Automatic annotation (TrEMBL):
<dbReference type="InterPro" id="IPR003439">
    <property type="entry name" value="ABC_transporter-like_ATP-bd"/>
</dbReference>
<dbReference type="Pfam" id="PF00005">
    <property type="entry name" value="ABC_tran"/>
</dbReference>
<keyword id="KW-0547">Nucleotide-binding</keyword>
<dbReference type="GO" id="GO:0005524">
    <property type="term" value="F:ATP binding"/>
</dbReference>
<feature type="region of interest" description="Disordered">
    <location>
        <begin position="340"/>
        <end position="361"/>
    </location>
</feature>
<dbReference type="InterPro" id="IPR017871">
    <property type="entry name" value="ABC_transporter-like_CS"/>
</dbReference>
<keyword id="KW-0067">ATP-binding</keyword>
<feature type="domain" description="ABC transporter">
    <location>
        <begin position="2"/>
        <end position="237"/>
    </location>
</feature>
<keyword id="KW-0813">Transport</keyword>
<dbReference type="InterPro" id="IPR003593">
    <property type="entry name" value="AAA+_ATPase"/>
</dbReference>
<protein>
    <submittedName>
        <fullName>ATP-binding cassette domain-containing protein</fullName>
    </submittedName>
</protein>
<comment type="similarity">
    <text>Belongs to the ABC transporter superfamily.</text>
</comment>
<dbReference type="InterPro" id="IPR027417">
    <property type="entry name" value="P-loop_NTPase"/>
</dbReference>
Length: 361
């Protein structure tokens, strides 16, 4: 666990980068710092590994003030990933990753063997190990950067806009990879981004910052999207908050109809293995959009139901076999109790109701 207690950084020129920040970063989870340029995100991150020393306040790592720990020892327990990966240009990929284990005193063979394992862990083919960084794509370089940060098996990982220099498709892949790695490794991750989409995708806890490192809101992504603290946070979150929030909710609770159900003249055709092939009916054959209740979100289920000619998404298991049909109504029902419709006669057509002043007449 990392704790910021009244952390403040004033630069000699009088600039206040961060003022009096109190924050708990829970162990084994991903905490994302997000906010506009210059709000103090990088400063906060670097306070943890003492690349920046607070002018007042302190940062605790598992209850110990980081200022009391020798910087070199502290940094051995903290992986650090930055934008553009920050690899050594003149060293091959494998040696880039093996650098820290070598510094920790491992012999060359052990360090390289560990580096090869890490290369595989971050999803890079073995042949990349002998290349130099300039021979890799931006996304591959970022993967090497993550592998290098993991090389000493540090309990804490600091990530400063690690994926911002790559295109959106590669970026989505890297985000996916980080979530997969985290589900295996359970590191304490402090991740900086200025991209709110990335923040809600990756964070267990999202900290929205304003200038001088002031916290506008600290919450889990679902709470952030559905209950922003104020208009400023809502504006920062942008449009379609409700729909994006559905992307964070699992589709496990959607009630399913049997696969053979006839829906407005449409029936699902499946192959010999039980996998859906098409919707058939009304003299037509149309694609059958699917979702996996165990892995996908309510947003994916709703999307598949909206695209289906039968008005229902096909639920599939891990082998792609159809397990049931989710109508649009069933997906909406899984959102929870609806706000009651106004009863007949309660509709107002000429503007909002004006309440009687209290205590009047
Ligand atoms: N050495 C320095 N001297 C004076 N001011 C500094 C120094 N380093 C950073 N700052 C200022 O401190 C503030 C916070 O900087 P920081 O890099 O932490 O912001 P950030 O939120 O990470 O920004 P970005 O998203 O643009 O990277 C900024 O106003 C910056 O100009």
């Amino acid at each position: 666990m990392i704790t910021f207690e009244g952390a403040t950084k004033r630069h000699p020129d009088g600039t206040v980068a961060v003022e009096g920040l109190d924050l708990d970063v829970p162990a084994g989870r991903i905490t994302v710092l997000v906010g506009p340029s210059g709000c103090g995100k990088t400063t906060l991150l670097r306070m943890v590994n003492r690349m920046v020393e607070p002018t007042s306040g302190r940062v605790l790592l598992n209850g110990e003030d980081v200022a009391s720990l020798p910087a070199a020892r502290l940094r051995r327990g903290i992986g650090y990933v930055i934008q553009q990966a920050g690899l050594f240009p003149h060293r091959r990929v494998l040696d880039n990753i093996a650098t820290v284990p070598r510094l920790l005193g491992r012999d060359r063979r052990t360090a390289r063997a560990r580096a090869a394992e890490l290369l595989e862990l971050v999803g890079l083919p073995p042949e990349t190990s002998r290349r130099y960084p300039f021979q890799l794509s931006g996304g591959q370089q970022q993967r090497v950067g993550v592998a290098r940060a993991l090389a000493a098996d540090p309990p804490v990982l600091l990530m400063d806009e690690p994926f911002s220099a790559v295109d959106p498709v590669v970026r989505a892949g890297l985000q996916e990879e980080l979530l997969r790695l985290q589900s295996e490794l359970n590191k304490t991750v402090l991740f900086v981004t200025h991209d709110i989409e990335e923040a809600v995708r990756l964070g267990d806890q999202v900290v929205v910052l304003r200038e001088h490192g002031r916290i506008a809101q600290c919450a889990d992504p679902h709470t952030l999207l559905t209950a922003p603290a104020d208009d400023g946070v809502a504006a920062f979150l942008g449009r379609d908050r409700g729909l994006r929030g559905l992307g964070l909710r699992p589709a496990t609770a959607v009630a399913l109809l049997p696969v053979g159900t006839d829906l407005h003249g449409w029936r699902l055709a499946v192959d010999a293995g039980g996998r859906p092939t098409a919707w058939e009916g009304n003299g037509e054959r149309r694609p059958a959009p699917v979702f996996a209740p165990a892995a996908d979100s309510l947003r994916s289920a709703l999307d598949a139901a909206v695209l289906s000619p039968a008005g229902a998404a096909v639920a599939v298991d891990g082998y792609g076999r159809a397990t049931g049909l989710a109508t649009r109504a069933a997906v909406l029902a899984a959102l929870g109790p609806a706000v009651p419709e106004p009863a007949a006669g309660e509709h107002t057509v000429d503007g909002p109701t004006v309440e009687e002043p209290a205590g009047g007449r």
